[in-house]
Amino acid sequence: MSEPCFTLDGEDVPFVPGDTLLQAARRAGHYIPHLCWHPDFRAHGSCRICTVRVNGRMAAACAVQASEGLAVENHTEELDAQRKTLLQMLFIEGNHFCPSCEKSGNCLLQATAYQMGMEGPHFEEFYPDRPVDASHPDILLDFNRCILCELCVRASHEIDGKNVFAIAGHGIGTHLVVNSDSGQLGDTDMALTDRAAGICPVGVILPKRRGFVIPIGERRYDQDSVAEPGRQEAS
Amino acid sequence: MTTTLTPYPAHGPRKLKVATVSLAGCFGCHMSFLDIDERLLELIEHIEFDRSPLTDIKTVGHCDLGLIEGGLCNAENVQVLREFRAHCKTLVAVGACAINGGLPAQRNHLDLGRLLTDVYPQGVPNDPELPLLLNHVHPIHEVVHVDYFLPGCPPSADAFWSFLTDLMAGRTPHLGHGLIHYD
Lengths: 235, 183
Ligand code: SF4
Ligand code: SF4
Description:
The complex is a heterodimer of chains A (235) and B (183).
Chain A: E1 5-8, E2 11-14, H1 21-27, E3 51-54, E4 57-60, E5 71-73, H2 77-93, H3 108-115, E6 139-141, H4 151-159, E7 165-168, E8 175-178, H5 195-198, E9 205-207, H6 220-223
Parallel strand pairs in A: 1-5
Antiparallel strand pairs in A: 1-2, 3-4, 3-5, 6-9, 7-8
Chain B: E1 16-22, H1 28-34, H2 39-46, E2 47-49, E3 63-69, E4 72-74, H3 75-87, E5 88-94, H4 95-100, H5 112-119, E6 133-138, E7 148-150, H6 157-168
Parallel strand pairs in B: 1-2, 1-3, 3-5, 5-7
Antiparallel strand pairs in B: 4-6
One iron/sulfur cluster binds at residues 146-152, 176, 199-200, 202, 204-205 of chain A.
């Protein structure tokens, strides 16, 4: 008996029972844009960049179970335009000054925006006031760039067993918090070797004393686009 | 009697008029533009410069294309931007500062009065010649309509070239992988 399949932009994609659309598509070498999804963690479904059309209805590809015969549309003009709008909103809600960001060239948000052809922010900038936390001896936190993907929350909880991070607040006031009495990272047991220290897809959680070590032109997404297999997730 | 017809003078296609300016920027985008090197000779076959630091013309005439580097940090920047918009058929925001405020906008969460007294402890200069500072630095699309964005800090010479050759050929400019950069 042949493997069960769904179609992605008309192409057959095989899946194993329990797969989500995103898992199966990625395994088959397809690129469904995403920011908050990572193969090592359970789906979170917050960024909505992976929204596809499944049998005519919009759904997050990271959260929908694959099933035989589904017709999934991924790279349509409409969906890619909506993804670009979502990305533009993420950019203006934070302070994303790429030329002075250590993550530039290795950043999933930036690379996804390149892929969606985002040339400008389109909307009015928020320029929010989000002070950095430099209290930890080895790790810098620059909240200006947080996209609330919760990957650090999941990594700290599920892999490091530490619960260093959490998301607090509602609506536009939603923000990342550090779980210590002072609210400072320096007062937690976070270590540079923790999974949470390396999972951030953007330039929030950064190792100190290593900035700009790889020259522009040699960074992750200078070489390959985010659509390439092996380049689709935060490093 | 035979009449000799004087041939009608052959005209090449009209050259595009291009103006450029640096608002709250560092001239890095202009320098990168010049980095297209010998391709400038080909470019100059198709365009002529109006107001630009390259010509030292101070006022902008009617132009086909305006390239604007830098964001808005003072009242004069806003005035120059409005003049460009009124005189240029197509307006391009060039570089990170024009597009999202860039480095100058990193003062936006600081108090402007406090910044000035910190920078000028002997007394803040107060001369009518000095344009008034805006409280916040803004990208140019927040004040006028922008037709195209050419990102980068600065955009590479190849990005300039690809963008301009697309525009001159009447195509919508498209920067593919490797040319689209925010840094
Ligand atoms: S986190 Fe990414 S998008 Fe944001 S400033 Fe840094 S490189 Fe740019
Ligand atoms: S700090 Fe990084 S990993 Fe954590 S929520 Fe913000 S963007 Fe995601």
